[in-house]
Each structure stands twice: as C-alpha cells, then as structure tokens.
Amino acid sequence: MHPSHNERPIVTDLNLDVIGKVRWNDSYVLTEQPNLWGDPPVPFVTTAADYFAGDGAQTVLDLPVGDGRNLPELAERFSTVVGADSSDNAIGIAAGRAAAAGYRNVLLLKADVYATGFADASFDGVFCCDVLGHLQEPARAIRELLRITRPGHHLMANVFALEDSTRGVDMVPIGDETYLFDDRFYFRFYDKSAAKELVDEVEDAADLVALEPVTWTEPPHEGYREYEHEHVSWLFTLRKHT
Ligand SMILES: C[S@@+](CC[C@H](N)C(=O)[O-])C[C@H]1O[C@@H](n2cnc3c(N)ncnc32)[C@H](O)[C@@H]1O
C-alpha cells in the first residue's frame, strides 16, 4: 500500500470534486516511479496537435497537464505551451520533465478547470485529457475551457467509455454509471449517447466536429493502478463558434 493513500476517510459532506483535487495531489507523491502516468503520451494528443496545427495555432493549453506525459508532442509543434493542473505535485514533476527535455516554450502553472483564471480567447487550441470523467459537473468545465479558446479554434477532450477495462474494477457504484475508485476518485463512464448529451449542453458555444472512440494501453501507475491496462474513451472535438 502506498504510504500516502487510503489512510484518510471519505469526507462525504464535501463535494467530490474538491476532495478529488486533494487526492490527486497526494497521488503524485511517488517513491518508485519517476512519474505517475508513465512516459508514452496518449495517442490522441497527436490528433489534437493536428487540429491545432491546421488552425495555425501558436499558443496552446494542456489542462490538466498531470505530470507532463503529453507535453512533448505539443512543445515540439507549437511556439508556446501552457500546462496547468490543480496539483502542485503534478506540476513539479512536469516541470522537471520539461527542464530535462530542454523546453523553453513551456509554462506550467496551477489552475482549476472550473475557473481557470485565463482571459477569454487566450488559446489557439485546448487539450483536456482524462479529467472530465472524474468531474461531477463536466459541462461546466467544458464551458470554461471554451471560454478561453479562441473563436473558430478547437477544444479536444475525452470521457471514459463503458467499454473501458477499468470500469467497476476496485470501484464502488454510487449512481448511474458513476463510481468511487479506491475510496478516492470519482469516475463516470459514458455510452455514445451520454457523451453526445454532454457536448450538446454546450451547443450554444461550439459545434461538435467529431465524436469517436479511442483505445490505448497504459503502463502501471504507482499507488493507483499498479498493472498494465487498456482504456477506451469517447474523444470529442469542438470548434468554438465565431
Ligand atoms: C488522470 S489525471 C490526467 C493527467 C493528464 N491529462 C494526463 O493525461 O496524463 C487527472 C488530472 O486532473 C487533475 N485535476 C483534477 N481535478 C482538477 C481540477 N478541478 N482542475 C484542474 N485539474 C484537475 C489532477 O490533478 C490530475 O493531474
């Protein structure tokens, strides 16, 4: 058992998103691995970068950046990359990786996806990987990410699909396709129509360009899910209205 995990009781009178941010920050305290999520990027960061490049993007955002596995693809293709996360520990690891890679165009900072603090239309492209399925109000987060996306430019994000191999594993059901994993992390899994319903909530702000399944393999994550596993998500691409 990882020393920093599972010793705190669940605090049920707090919003799970608030508890989650504390738990996520704890999960980046590592003793065996140099980072939590491993070195390979998710495959769809390349898809996102292709969309952003097609828009002539210069400044792009990776939120949540986690400990930085998706930064190389962005840092090597765009003039400026902002990586933001609510976890100080994650940002610390991402900063070490960016420095080791010699990236001088990467800015890392703390931000909450519900209230990022960035000005309207700050970014030429926004990449949001593996957090919306952990949030209780994903549409509110998408709306905030669209606020900071430039009109006519793209936001790419994913939600966990019902076919994901981790669905229900070490998870306690707490509602309709919602679970608490390892007493710590909120998960919601989506079928295609539920994913479409989610993006329809922001149809006043953006057009849905694509909604497609993506599958990839993850290495073991210390203190979190300590075996290789497969993920399946619904990946959606939104184009902000001009
Ligand atoms: C599963 S990790 C994914 C990290 C990264 N996108 C990746 O693919 O490696 C989820 C991340 O979301 C961050 N997070 C959770 N709630 C957040 C919030 N409200 N605002 C910003 N980041 C948040 C966590 O700190 C964690 O780094």
TrEMBL record:
SUPFAM superfamilies membership: S-adenosyl-L-methionine-dependent methyltransferases
Methyltransferase keyword on record: yes
Residue span, Methyltransferase type domain: 61-155
Domain of life: Bacteria
Keyword list, A-Z: Methyltransferase, Transferase
GO molecular function annotations of the record: S-adenosylmethionine-dependent methyltransferase activity
UniProt-listed InterPro entries: Erg6_SMT_methyltransf, Methyltransf_11, SAM-dependent_MTases_sf
UniProt KW Methyltransferase keyword: yes
GO BP term, example: methylation
Matching Gene3D superfamilies: Vaccinia Virus protein VP39
Identification of the protein by name: Class I SAM-dependent methyltransferase
Organism of this sequence: Actinomadura rubrisoli
Lineage of producing organism: Bacteria, Bacillati, Actinomycetota, Actinomycetes, Streptosporangiales
